[in-house]
Amino acid sequence: FKKYAGCSVSDFLNKNPSVSLEEKIRSFVTEVENLTKIPDYGKYLTKMLEWDEFILNDDRHFNNIAFVYNSETDRFSICTLFDNGAGFLSDTRFDYPLQKDIYGMSANVKAKPFSESFSKQTEACRKLYGTQLQIADNICICKDVEEKMRSEYGDKVTDRICEIFSHQKYLLEEYLYPSKESVLDSLIREA
């Protein structure tokens, strides 16, 4: 961002501290679209932040929002969503110990990059660009994925992920759409 806009994202967004969250997001999206010529970037950003809210990813800082540059065509494109490793209260060593209640901890997860509140930043994005994330209401973590998680992370971590996943589906019904057929696909394939 700094290379093309001449200042950091933080400096750009804080030029006028009295601007609303919605206006900060709109100006960021407009600047990104002007710099990259990527159309409808606001919809992509909204989906990214909605996904972060769904998985409780507390690590979506501006260095985790990227673009792909093709030097042959001199064009930018959106980058595949990456660095979701801080989702599902995964920092069990410091921020989210396994012995603590997930419901209390999940209510206190701090979002990034525009607000510490997931709901405030996704609400601002949705006002501007509409709801973008759509997840089949019958999505589940399939047995193969659950077994692999248990073998790699153990029962406590896997149980936590499954419980958070179910809880987030309950809390964020607006991202779910009715599915006519049974889907036994994993969260990974749905994402």
Detailed description of the structure:
By secondary structure, this protein is mainly alpha-helical. Helices cover 47% and strands 6% of the residues. It has 9 helices and 4 strands. It has helices at residues 2-5, 9-13, 21-36, 41-55, 102-107, 118-129, 143-153, 155-171, 187-190, and strands spanning 67-70, 75-78, 135-136, 176-177. The strands form 2 sheets. It has a two-stranded antiparallel sheet with strand order 1-2. A hairpin with a 4-residue loop joins strand 1 (67-70) and strand 2. The chain is globular and about 50 Å long.
Secondary structure elements and their pairing?
Layout: H1 2-5, H2 9-13, H3 21-36, H4 41-55, E1 67-70, E2 75-78, H5 102-107, H6 118-129, E3 135-136, H7 143-153, H8 155-171, E4 176-177, H9 187-190
Parallel strand pairs: 3-4
Antiparallel strand pairs: 1-2
Provide a short characterization of the protein structure.
With 191 residues, this protein is mostly helical. It is 47% helix and 6% strand.
State the separation between the terminal residues, measured CA to CA: 26 Å
Series of H and E elements:
HHHHEEHHEHHEH
Task: List the total number of helices.
Answer: 9
Q: Strand sequence of the main sheet, in spatial order?
A: 1-2
Helix content: 40-55%
Cα gyration radius (Å): 18 Å
Please give the number of β-strands: 4
Parts with pLDDT < 50 across at least 5 consecutive residues = 182-191
The overall pLDDT, averaged over residues, is 92
Structural class: mainly alpha
Shape: globular
State which percent range the strand residues make up.
5-15%
- What is the quaternary state of this protein? single chain
